[in-house]
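During the no-cost extension, the postdoctoral fellow (Dr. R.K.) reprocessed legacy sequence entries with the updated structure-token encoder. One reprocessed record is reproduced below for audit purposes.
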Amino acid sequence: MSVQKDIEKKVKELTDEFRQLEFFLLFSDTYDQRNAILAVHAGAGGTDAQDWAAMLLRMLLRFADRKSWHVRLLDKSVGQEAGIKSATIEVRGRWAYGHLRSEAGVHRLVRISPFDAEKMRHTSFALVEVLPELEDIEEVVKIADKDLRIDTFMSSGAGGQSVNTTYSAVRVVHIPTGITVSCQNERSQQQNRETALKILKSKLHKLELEKQQEEKRKLRGEYQSAEWGSQIRSYVLQPYQMVKDHRTKYEEKNPDAVLDGKLDGFIESYLRWSVKK
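Re-encoded structure tokens follow.
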């Protein structure tokens, strides 16, 4: 009997090891091993959307915490009544970008609004951006000074001794594309400027890669125009409870666990779907 238990234990260990190795084979993107830069933006919907953006940010932070990754807040704009308008974080950890790229896109929330006196059901949207951190980005992307507008403003968050007293926060606008990046949580204006430029170059690099992919799809006859309104995932809290990914059809019936950072099922199903594509 003890021999059978030993065999069953060994089979389970080998099965778990095989499944882990199989999972890491799913990382097919060039930058999957890199750290990640992640931004969350509230969509249309006022306070509800800003609260939803804060919930999404917490979900992603909880997932990073489960992985024992290091997270650094780079920029945060708080909502007037609740939640956040936007936030940008840096996530440093093993295969961080490979895991988190599944979260890039529009996330939709359906719930009874806590901000509605009539307790009506509301739908809110928030956008998650995920970029790989590129150490060699200076060599990959060059930006002419004439294409940049750099503004400084007073920092509004935690960061250093001089916060709220000096114009250390930086906003960088890439004029040809309109892409805007802000950073205010570094200790000095120069550090904020360098971080903002690094993020901007990563965004421009990703934009160029997406254009190339679109051209390839056109040549293969697979091209479809991207629609901003198409959400990647829906989180329904009322009238029933479910979280469903619209790309992979994977779903969970415990939204509380998902919003507390339990994303492994969604990530694995996305990676498998991505490889098949």
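The chain has two domains: 1-133+232-277, 137-220. The mean pLDDT is 85. The remaining legacy entries will be reprocessed before the final report is submitted.
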